[in-house]
Specification:
Layout (H helix, E strand, L loop, with lengths): L2 H14 L3 H12 L4 H7 L4 H36 L18 H15 L3 E2 L5 E3 H4 L19 E3 L2 E3 L5 H9 L4 E10 L11 E11 L4 H16 L5 E8 L2 E10 L16 E3 L1 E6 L1 H6 L8 E8 H9 L12 H4 L3
Parallel strand pairs: 1-5
Antiparallel strand pairs: 2-4, 3-4, 5-6, 6-11, 7-8, 8-9, 8-10, 10-11
Helix pairs in contact: 1-4, 2-4, 5-10
C-alpha cells in the first residue's frame, strides 16, 4: 500500500470537507473497519510496515480531529450569530389573561358591601343538614331536603344548596350585631339549560341588629342594584314566601333585553327575578340563641350568574363555562 499517496489523498479530501457530516463520511472511508488502512494493518507481518502504517493512522486521526474541531467552531459561530438577541429591541408581547366574569362580579359585590361595613365570609361547600336545612327553618317535608333536589354525599351530609349555612355558623359564633355576606359556589340537581346549572354562584347577605326593618332591606337592595346595573335600571319588590324569612320579598330588575317592553327572556313581563330576601324569621334567630324580642334582621340571596346575564346581555348561562376565548375576552 502506498502510504504517502493515501496520506495526501486524505489530506486533500479533508481540506475540501465543509461540514461535520462530510468529516464523518471521510473518517469511515479512511479509518473505518473496512478502510484500506485498517485492512493493511491486519495483514502486517513485519515491524517496519507496522510502524509506518500506525504512524499514518495516528497522523490521519489527528488531522481528522483538528479539522472536526475547526468546523465545530465555525458552525458554533454561525449558530451564535443566527441566534443573537438584540437586547435593545422591544420584546415579544404576550397576551395577558384576566379574571373570569363571575370572579369580577363577585369582587365588585364584595367591594360594595365592604364599603357598607359588612364582612366577607367564605363558607363550607360540604355542609350538614343541620346548617343547610334545620337552622334555616326548613320543615322535614320541604322539597329541598329531597335527593331529587339536593346532592347528598351521606345521610346527613350534602353539597350546600345555598351559602346561607355560613350565616348560621357566624351567628352561633358571635353575638349581634352581625353584618356579613357569603359569596360562593352552590349545588342543586338541576338540568343545564339557558338559565339553569347544577353548579352556580350566589352571594347571600345577613344583617342582624337592634331595630332592623324591611325599609333597611329595601334600601340595601336598591343601593346594590343601582351600583350593579346603573341608576336607570328599574327595580321593584314583590311579596313571596321563604322558610327562613317573614315577611319575604323578591326584587325584580327591568329586563336587559327589552328594557321592560316584554320579550321571551323575561316571559313578556318586562322584569327579571333577581333572588329572594326578607326579614329573618324569629325561629332562625332562636335556633342560634338570639332573642327575637331584642334583635331583628334581614337576609337576601342573589345569583352571580344572573347578574352577569343582566349586565352584559348574555343569552345563555352555559356560555360562561364553555371556556370559549372568543366569549371570555369580551369582559
Amino acid at each position: 500500500m502506498d502510504v504517502e499517496k493515501l496520506e495526501q489523498e486524505a489530506a486533500k479530501a479533508l481540506e475540501q470537507a465543509g461540514s461535520l457530516e462530510e468529516i464523518e463520511e471521510l473518517r469511515v472511508r479512511f479509518l473505518g473497519r473496512s478502510s484500506e488502512l485498517k485492512l493493511a494493518l491486519r495483514e502486517v507481518r513485519d515491524r517496519e510496515s507496522g510502524i509506518s502504517l500506525n504512524a499514518l493512522r495516528q497522523s490521519l486521526e489527528a488531522a481528522f480531529e483538528q479539522r472536526r474541531s475547526a468546523l465545530e467552531q465555525v458552525e458554533l459561530q454561525h449558530k451564535l450569530m443566527a441566534e443573537r438577541i438584540d437586547v435593545t429591541l422591544p420584546g415579544e408581547r404576550f397576551s395577558e389573561g384576566h379574571l373570569h366574569l363571575i370572579t369580577q362580579i363577585r369582587r365588585e359585590v364584595e367591594d360594595i358591601f365592604l364599603g357598607l361595613g359588612y364582612m366577607i365570609v367564605d363558607g363550607r361547600e360540604v355542609e350538614t343538614t343541620r346548617y343547610n336545612f334545620d337552622g334555616l327553618n326548613m320543615p322535614p317535608w320541604h322539597p329541598t331536603r329531597s335527593p331529587g333536589h339536593s346532592l347528598f354525599l351521606a345521610d346527613q351530609v350534602l353539597l350546600r344548596t345555598e351559602t346561607s349555612p355560613s350565616q348560621i355558623r357566624v351567628m352561633e359564633a358571635q353575638k349581634p350585631p352581625v353584618y356579613m355576606i357569603s359569596p360562593g359556589r352552590v349545588y342543586r340537581r338541576d338540568t343545564p339549560d339557558a338559565t339553569h346549572s347544577p353548579v352556580f354562584h350566589q352571594v347571600e347577605g345577613l344583617a342582624v341588629d337592634r331595630g332592623i326593618s324591611l325599609a333597611d332591606l329595601k334600601g340595601t337592595l336598591l343601593h346594590l342594584m343601582r351600583a350593579l346595573f346603573g341608576e336607570k335600571r328599574e327595580v321593584r319588590f314583590r311579596t313571596h314566601f321563604f322558610p327562613f324569612t317573614e315577611p319575604s320579598i323578591e326584587p325584580d330588575v327591568s329586563c336587559h333585553m327589552c328594557d321592560g317592553a316584554g320579550c321571551p327572556v323575561c316571559k313578556h313581563s318586562g322584569w327579571i327575578e333577581m333572588g329572594g330576601s326578607g326579614i329573618v324569621d324569629p325561629n332562625v334567630l332562636e335556633f342560634v340563641g338570639y332573642d327575637p324580642e331584642e334583635v331583628s334582621g334581614f337576609a337576601f340571596g342573589l345569583g352571580l350568574e344572573r347578574i352577569a346575564l343582566l349586565r352584559h346581555r348574555v343569552p345563555d348561562i352555559r356560555l360562561l363555562w364553555e371556556n370559549d376565548l372568543r366569549f371570555s375576552r369580551q369582559f
